[in-house]
Design a protein that fits this description.
InterPro entries: YbaB-like_sf, YbaB/EbfC. It holds the Pfam family YbaB_DNA_bd. The structure is a single chain. The chain is mainly α. It is built from five helices and three strands; from the N terminus they run αβββαααα. The chain has a domain of 89 residues: Ybab, Chain: A (2-Layer Sandwich). Strands 1-2-3 form a three-stranded antiparallel beta sheet. A hairpin with a 5-residue loop joins β1 and β2. α1 packs antiparallel against α2. 12% of the residues are buried.
């Protein structure tokens, strides 16, 4: 291969890497996460780095135990950080694939990331848990209550 040809190919690779980096930077700029406490009284938002960007405390929290409120805030922040981190992992994975760089990014996420297998499982709504079989079928074949 001619040196000029090699240099031209190398220059094109560098330009492509710059374009990819700019695209990733743009995508990461839009990353964020939010979470709401189970009682709906606290809502938080974080940016791509996990920094708190918004905190909403509903008026019904007046008179509540401050330790309970702070614990609920911290839990919601951790959930929002996991959501944002999941978006970062997805963007990095799509842009750079699996490898040491992605492993490094994952290892630096203090609360993990959504999709890492440690996500809390929401219980099914009661309406979906109900046994809706006809009475005759239910009493002929009762559910196993004792496991």
């Amino acid at each position: 291969m001619e040196p000029d040809q090699w240099l031209a190919q190398y220059g094109e690779k560098i330009e492509q890497a710059k374009r990819n980096a700019a695209a990733v930077e743009t995508q990461l700029g839009g990353v964020g996460g939010s979470a709401t406490s189970p009682d709906g009284l606290i809502t938080v938002s974080v940016n791509a780095s996990g920094a708190l960007t918004d905190l909403v405390l509903r008026p019904q929290l007046r008179g509540e135990d401050p330790e309970r409120i702070s614990a609920a805030i911290l839990t919601a922040v951790a959930q929002a950080q996991r959501a944002a981190a999941g978006q970062v992992v997805q963007i990095m994975s799509e842009s750079f694939g699996d490898g040491p760089a992605l492993d490094f990014v994952k290892a630096k996420m203090p609360n993990g990331y959504s999709g890492d297998g440690a996500d809390a499982v929401e219980p099914a709504p009661e309406i979906q848990r109900r046994d809706t079989r006809p009475d005759d079928d239910y009493f002929t074949n009762p559910p196993d209550v004792m496991a």
